[in-house]
Structure formats: structure tokens, C-alpha cells
Amino acid sequence: MKKTINEILPSIVQLRHELHAHPEIRFEEHWTSDRIAAYLDSIGVAYTRGHAKGTGIVATIKGSGDRTVALRSDMDALEIEEDTGVPYSSEISERMHACGHDGHMANLCGTAQVLNAHRDQLHGTVKFIFQPAEEQAAGGRYIVEEGILDDVDAVFGLHCWPTLPIGQVGVKSGPAMASADFFHIDIEGIGCHGADPGAGVDPIYVASQIVTALQSIVSRETNPWDPAVLTVARIQAGFASNVIPETAIMEGTFRALTPDVRNRILEALPRVVEHTALAHRAKATVRFGHDPYPPLHNDPEMSTFAKETVQEVFGAEAFYEPHAASMAAEDFAFYLNKVPGAFLFLGNNPDASKTYPGLHSPHFDFRDEALPVGIETMSQLAIRFLKG
Ligand code: NI
Description:
Number of strands: 16
Oligomer: single chain
Bound molecules: nickel (II) ion
Order of helices and strands: HHEEEHEHEEEEEHEEEHEEHEHEH
CATH topology of the largest domain: Aminopeptidase
Helix content: 25-40%
Strand order of the largest sheet: 1-2-4-3-5-16-6-15
């Protein structure tokens, strides 16, 4: 298999660079989808298109056997102006593959190519899911709702991880990544002269009280052993330094590792916001975003299977088990709520003596050196799982 990977690597790296130069955001991955379809055509792997609101692709390789394993890559980019200086930098302004999804797509195409060349080793079917809109728009939910996992026995996905050295692969068994919810708060006060606050109701003062009161949810209403984060990320109010405005808006996000903690915050947030506003004669209303992500829980058995696969293929030291979950979110959680599986972290730091730019940084670039590791990991997970 290593020989096959070495042979296909130049074309996979070329594909990665092309995808990197053409970043497209949530549900707009049309060029990307065409490019992946063309690559799958070139290697003779069958697929269907039009999934998850249009740009998703599901390729299939059938071997002899009843079991089915799915492997997933996300496809979308971010609204960031690239500042890496690489020759294949983004050709589209304010669009960038700053989360490495270009690498994930190339990795999955490479895995399809390797498994197609070694299909005699497949004791079952492999589905390759190219999923749009991982960032903020829950593309993974549409894949699950379409029934693409209905005949699937296990699912694996991976994400490049800039704090992990290239050559290592990490899996955190159990709760591994957080839920993500987004909220918007409208505060209604009464505008007046900045010198006469008693004549009105100051929404900026109320917003400040709400920021402070919201922190009591994490510190006073949840168990300290159950991690949670609540962040007010945006406040907007007022136009002049001598006028108390009529209204203020606030926006933010909260994260949790279990459905229980997430539900507690969902209940507490409107209560704290509305009553804090009332205490100061204002009115506040809360709206939650349309696309919350559930917490991501790796199946313990599949995590052990992934760990053993990594250790047998690359050696014991190649495996890394993170001590703590990440409070970032990932819509692969929808897959894992449907089918057992695991989400792997693929080492992406080329020099352990230095920190590598983080995900969503304008300086981040997926590392091509990680591709052989990712392709072999995914290929072996599929072959070994189907063997049973
Ligand atoms: Ni990502």
C-alpha cells in the first residue's frame, strides 16, 4: 500500500493545491464539487452528486461482503483573506482554506484511489462522503437526514491538527469536541440625553449587566467537572458620546461536552437575559441560531479500533490520545449520533520545536507531508473494519 501511496502522491498534492487556490464557502462549493467529480472520473470510482443541498458527493467502492464503512471529508472554506505566501494561494478574495478542508478532500480522493487499486482486499463496501458546509451551516446534518448513513455500519473522519506533529494521529475516546450554539439578544431601552439617564432606560448598562450575569450560568449552574464555555462575542449600541441609545444587540456562542449541560444552558440563558433586563426596566429577547451542533462523542470501541490500527500501521508512538476534549465544534457529531465511529486528529505540525499557525488563521496551510499518513490511516481503517 505504501508503494501505491507514493505513486499517487504527486497527483494528490497537485489536487490539494488546486483546491486550495479555489476556496468556496458553505453550500457554494460548485467548482470544488466539479473538481472532485473529475478526479473520481479519472481514477474510475463511481459516485452520485447533488447531496446536502447540492454540492455534496458520495462515491462508492463495492467489495465482496455485507458490511459498509463510510469515510468523510468536509469541503468548505472560510471568509478569510489568505496570508500564507504559498504559490498556490487563494485566487478568491476573502476566501481561504484556513481549516485544511482542501487537505481533507485530497486525502479522501487519495484514499479512494488506494482502495480502488486494492479493492481485492475489501470485504465490503466503502462510501466516500464529500460534505459541504462544515463551518457554521451543519452540512453534516443534511447528509444524515438524506439517509446516506442508513446502510453504514461505521464512519470515520479526520481533521488536520496543527498542535500535533506530522506522523502522529490522535483520537479522544468519548466526548471529544463540544456542541456549538449561537445566540442573538435584542435589548430595548429608552433613549435620552447622556446627561439625564433617569429620563430613559440605558440599554448599554443593561447589556453590561447581562454579560456579567451570563457568566454565572457556567460558574454557578453547571457542574465544574462538565466543561462549558459561554462567550459574548459582539455588542453593538449607540452612535454618539452624549446620547443614551434606544437599543443594543449582543451576540455570542456557548459550548458544552454533553447534551445535559447544553440543555441546561439553553434553559438558563433566556431566563438570565430576560430577568436581568427586567431588573433594570429594559426588555430583552433571545434568539438562537438555526444550526446548533451537538457535542461530538467518539464511540469507545471504534476509538480503540482506530488506536490499534494507527499503532499497528505506524508504530506505538504514532498514536496520541488528547487529555482533554476540544471546545471547538464539528458537524461530524451528527454522523456519530447516527452510527458508531471515530473522528481522528491528523498531525499537521512540521517542526515540533515551533508552534504552527492555528486553524482559521490567515497563515495556516494544510501540510502535504501529512497526506501519506492520512491516506494510509483512512485506507487501513476501511480495510480492517470490513474484515470484521
Ligand atoms: Ni475544519
